[in-house]
Amino acid sequence: MKTIGKYQILGLLGRGGMGTVYKARHPELGRIVALKLLAPMDMLEAIIGLPELTRRFEAEARTMAGLNHENIATVWDLERDDRGRPFFIMDYFCNNVGAVIGETYRVEAPSRVLRIDRAADIARQTLEGLARLHAAGIVHRDMKPFNLLLTASGGVKIIDFGLSKLRGEQLKLHGSEKVGSPYYAPPEQEADAESVGPAADLFSVGVMLQRMLTGRLPQLSCDPPSACNPDLDFQWDSFLVRAVAESPDERFASARAMIETLDVLLADWRARTANSCVLPLDSDAAGPVTNADKSPSGPPRSGSLRTGPKVGPEYFGLDELWRPQRYAANEFAARGDGTVLHQETGLVWQQGASDYPLTRDEAQDYVDGLNSRGYADCADWRLPTVSELMTLLTPVAQGRDFCVAPVFDTSRSRLWSCDRRTFAQSWSADTELGFISAHDHTCHNYARAVCSIDR
What is the pLDDT of residues 37-76, one digit of tens each? Predict the structure, then answer.
């Protein structure tokens, strides 16, 4: 097994102009970590020089290590490999905002829309982390979805400080060197990256929030943003327009000010949602009806499979964002013993799920434990297939969807399947956002078991 320093390398997570990030394991503790190694592209090294790149790399590690905040990723170690190249160790998390919204190298393409409360929560946590950065005199300058890691419990961790600017620091930039990412960097940063202040990071958060709420970048469509999301109103429109104003002076004065306004908007949205639920609810609204297929489709596949790494979303009948092309309009009935029956297929599901997010192996152990104690009088509990998990998926909740009490426990939304993508990855479902994805077996998702009964 390849090693860097004492760490065992498990796989490649990403590669940028200045460094490469690996998934790694501490040999004695077995802990999974992210290892970032200085490995600049030849052109970048020729332009800037290895000494300056090394200085920046080590400054990034020290900057992150010096900030003790729950919304900033923690750096644990800074070492050199046997070739003298510096690397540092930081927290490893499987998910990030970019993956959750489905952003790809085609940044302009539409992405998944999040629930208002989930999108606002991600933005709020990001702003809390930025408030800490800005108080320390640091401007991140590369805020984007893939630089926001998500913990198993939904926490946000800011990463990638390689382009950050310290108060008073004069960073030597080559004329061809760009700071920030297209669409997420504000106009003033593109014009003069050395002069930007905290407002540059706030602009990036505004772009990310609008994308999470509408599925589109503000520079390309949705004017006003409420045209792309009926849950938004003119107050949200005003907030988002101010957040991405071209002039820094027209944006929010600080991350804290942006948080306070966002909190008011979210409280108002919750009050409006609660008030709308007081009105009578049509029976037709008691479940997902948008793009729903109400025709019988037969029982979903129950046998596990391994797809291989090259299959696309069409393999499972999904769209480009890995969502069902037709949602199943299924009716589930709680049985009163902690399980839910799907009458059409005869499948019995756990109403809840495992108490904690688990690795894939731990998820299988959890299911084995249900069988060993005969949970709910069923002896063949198992992890569901992707086909079975797809019967649980619904469109993202909007409007009066919130008025319908969910049958399943919604606090545990990322669920393992029994279907494997490779020997080291299995498919999973996000029941909150309604899509399918694959995760390494060391990732932490919940286990919701399913059982077939005779009818």
Answer: 999 888 888 888 999 999 989 988 898 898 889 999 999 9
Spatial distance between the Cα atoms of 350 and 448, rounded to a whole number of angstroms? 6
Instruction: Specify the number of domains making up the chain.
Output: 3
157-190 tens-digit pLDDT: 999 877 777 654 555 545 544 566 889 999 998 8
CA distance 289 to 329: 7
Cis peptide upstream of residue 357 (ω within 30 degrees of 0) = no
Q: Is 413 part of any domain?
A: yes
Find all residues with CB under 8 Å of 47, minimum gap 6, and list them: 174, 176, 177
**Same-domain status, 136 and 165:** yes
121 is catalytic: no
Domain end position, chosen among 63, 90, 117: 90
- Is the residue at 175 inside a domain? no
Catalytic residue among 42, 77, 81, 142: 142
The candidate with the shortest Cα–Cα distance to 95, out of 145, 60, 166, 167, is 145
Note whether 266 and 292 are same-domain residues.
no
